[in-house]
Design a protein that fits this description.
about 5% strand; 10 strands; globular; eight-stranded antiparallel beta sheet; Niban-like; 17 helices; 3 domains
């Protein structure tokens, strides 16, 4: 592989590339500083006035994955540097990062994959379709192979628009389906968003991202709003930088199409990782600077809270009066006729998904009842309850639930309302389904535990049945509330950006004059652009609430009316023990959990057992037909070397670093780290003058 830049010209200089990142972060920083004061004010106002929130019937546990790991096992991974499929031991901890090791016996992690922004593909056809868009002006043919030859028909690819792709292969379809479910859960978890518990930093960041993108003309949902803040900011930078650099570098890549696609992927990955490193530092500096001002801001608006609210209401009324006629026209002609059909498109697959959650839970509880009755009453509860307690985090058992929601399609509405894909709504619904499943299981655990005191086998069976009925009824109530909130939020995410796109350009020039109505001391807490959005938000909320209430009255999707309260609510349910129950030690005769460094981390998904197939010994390579042979290490010699090393335990794996910045092993092969390495990927061109290093934000 070889690359060289000649003279790119002054417009493509090193300073220009760094200037792009600097410009994005400076613009974002200005928006962030403004939105921080607004979010802090809203948080304190919410704290003082209180917010209306429905009472959940189910309990919620704070750390469901304590002392747990998701999955581990062997599969084959494609190595870029020698074009071999190498057996790797994969470990998925409670962080949902994918760690892989040379084999099960070594302690040192080879690398860690953070799955935010990735897609999991299970066929070469899917991968080629996405790969065909990686370089402008070139397309992969259906019969073309990319830069790897599959070791088996059962392929798994982690694809990312900017980062490097990861290729895995397994030996059977059963293995493929299980690993597919696990990897999809890793992506789902990584994409689930920033912590909602932080009522200041999270809305500050999300509103700043949204307003920045709206300033660039992007009003709709954004698929790359995933991962932590640094990664989201890197996606924001790459959104424009990627296209610019692709048009610059792409035509200079030489070789066959698969080789050019591979080289561009490695260059993009190197840029992306360096951009993440920059955004991480700069975002931390932004937060630190904002938090320094927090005490003074807090004191300022607590003193004048009533006056600030009154001033904001005055500005709100003036802006609404200005845009009332046109706002009502857009609502009447372009929004209201579509709300019912939009709601129906959302309700059908999401409700089916929540029904499936209930069915899966019901089947598991029925099995528990039967096994308890047949296997010996309370003594059999240990192993059965240990399995049940992690049901929500079992990606294979939950897969049927997730698949129902994946049928969600907003076709016909996507173009009108500027929705790139329904994945934002699909993944949000899936996360809510998992939360409701875990809440139901945890509530069942607590209800059952408080009722089991020296009961006979038949009594235990009846107790299980009673707790089952109570939990399912509570699940139905909470499921209805969660779905209604989801429908409201989803409709707002669809409609409000569309209305902003229709209305904001018409009134943008008039908004600055409303700043004159705001006292200078209040100007940091009242932004006319935010008030403009609130006017639109409140206007459309009324129609959305009406549509959701009408759907609840029809009872087509088992939605409860807002006024409905369960007759058998348990007022003392929240007083139950909040600590996790160690069923194995209390009822199953097991050792239970041990604390400290030597505790074992129980695995949620069972290992894959293949009939007639033994494990691949010590990470040997699979030969790839048509690829130049590379001498292999002696299996016996490798085994002897491994035996000299101490065995790794599940606890050791759990304590391994789980972020790429903590990685101790050599870098993932193939991705260039500097301009000099990138120059090895592009063939030489005629030298027109002295070379200038162009870092592409890599130095």
């Amino acid at each position: 592989m070889h690359l060289q830049f000649g003279e790119m010209g002054p417009t493509q200089s090193h300073d220009d590339k760094q200037e792009h990142l600097k410009q994005v972060m400076e613009e974002f920083g200005r928006v962030y500083k403004q939105q921080y004061a607004v979010a802090l004010f809203n948080s304190v106002r919410f704290e003082i006035e209180g917010g209306a929130s429905g009472q959940s019937q189910l309990l919620h546990r704070s750390d469901p994955l304590q002392d747990k790991s998701i999955f581990s096992g062997d599969l084959f991974q494609y190595l870029e540097e020698n074009k071999k499929w190498r057996n790797r031991f994969i470990y998925v901890a409670d962080s949902y990062n994918i760690s892989y090791y040379e084999n099960k016996l070594v302690r040192t992690v080879a690398s860690v994959i953070s799955c935010a922004g990735y897609k999991v593909l299970s066929s070469m056809q899917e991968y080629l379709e996405l790969l065909s868009h990686s370089l402008p002006g070139v397309r992969a043919k259906a019969g073309d192979s990319p830069f790897l030859k599959c070791a088996s028909p059962f392929l798994l690819v982690l694809w990312h628009p900017y980062a490097r792709h990861h290729y895995f292969s397994v030996r059977t379809e059963k293995e493929q389906q299980k690993w597919l479910a696990v990897f999809q859960d890793c992506v789902r978890h990584a994409n689930s968003g920033l912590p909602e518990e932080n009522r200041v930093l999270t809305p500050t960041f999300t509103d700043s991202i949204r307003l920045y993108r709206q300033g660039k003309g992007h009003y709709g949902t954004w698929d790359m709003m995933c991962g932590d803040a640094a990664r989201i900011l890197a996606n924001l930078v790459m959104e424009s930088l990627y296209v610019e650099l692709r048009s610059l570098i792409g035509p200079r890549l030489k070789g066959k199409l698969p080789q050019r696609q591979r080289d561009w992927m490695l260059i993009s990955d190197a840029m992306y990782r360096q951009v993440i490193a920059h955004t991480q530092v700069q975002y931390e500096a932004l937060v630190q600077a904002a938090e320094v001002e927090r005490p003074s801001l807090d004191a300022a608006f607590r003193k004048d809270m009533d006056q600030i609210i009154a001033s904001k209401e005055q500005v709100y009324g003036r802006i609404r009066a200005m845009m009332h006629t046109r706002l009502e026209q857009v609502l009447r002609t372009s929004v209201q006729p579509y709300i019912t059909s939009m709601l129906e498109d959302l309700m059908e697959p999401v409700s089916r998904g929540f029904y499936e959650v209930r069915d899966v839970l019901f089947r598991e509880l029925v099995d528990l009842s039967k096994n308890t009755l047949n296997d010996g009453g309370a003594e059999a509860l240990g192993k059965h309850m240990e399995r049940l307690s992690m049901l929500a985090f079992h990606p294979v058992k939950m897969r049927s639930c997730y698949e129902k929601v994946e049928q969600l399609s907003l076709e016909g509405l996507q173009k009108r309302f500027d929705v790139s894909s329904p994945s934002v709504f699909t993944q949000r619904a899936q996360i809510l389904m998992r939360e409701q499943m875990d809440n139901a299981v945890y509530t069942f655990e607590q209800l059952l535990h408080q009722s089991l005191q020296g009961q006979s086998r038949e009594q235990v069976y009846k107790t299980v049945q009673c707790c089952q009925d109570r939990v399912l009824k509570k699940y139905d109530y909470d499921s209805s509330s969660v779905r209604k909130n989801f429908f409201k939020e989803a409709l707002l995410q669809l409609i409000v950006p569309y209305m902003l796109k229709q209305l904001y350009p018409a009134y943008a020039a008039d908004l600055p004059r409303f700043r004159e109505l705001i006292f200078e001391d209040f100007s940091r807490f009242i932004l006319v652009e935010n008030v403009f959005e609130e006017v639109i938000l409140h206007s459309v909320t009324k129609d959305i609430m009406t549509a959701v209430k009408e759907a609840a009255v029809q009872r087509r999707h088992n939605l409860y009316r807002d006024s409905m309260v369960l007759n058998n609510s348990d007022p003392n349910l929240n007083l139950l023990e909040e600590n996790p129950i160690d069923w194995a030690s209390q009822y199953g005769g097991g050792e239970g959990h041990t604390r400290g460094a030597n505790r074992k981390h129980k695995q949620i998904v069972s290992m894959i057992q293949l009939d007639g197939m033994g494990p691949v010994p010590y990470g040997s390579c699979m030969e790839v037909p048509g690829v130049e042979e590379i001498p292999e290490e002696s299996e016996r010699q490798l085994a002897e070397e491994l035996q000299e090393k101490p065995l790794a335990t599940a606890g050791d794996l759990h304590r391994q670093p789980l972020t790429p910045t903590q990685q101790t092993a050599p870098k993932s092969p193939g991705s260039p780290e500097s301009v000099e390495e990138i120059r090895q990927l592009i063939s030489p061109v005629f030298k027109l003058g002295p070379k200038k290093p162009i870092s592409l934000i890599l130095n």
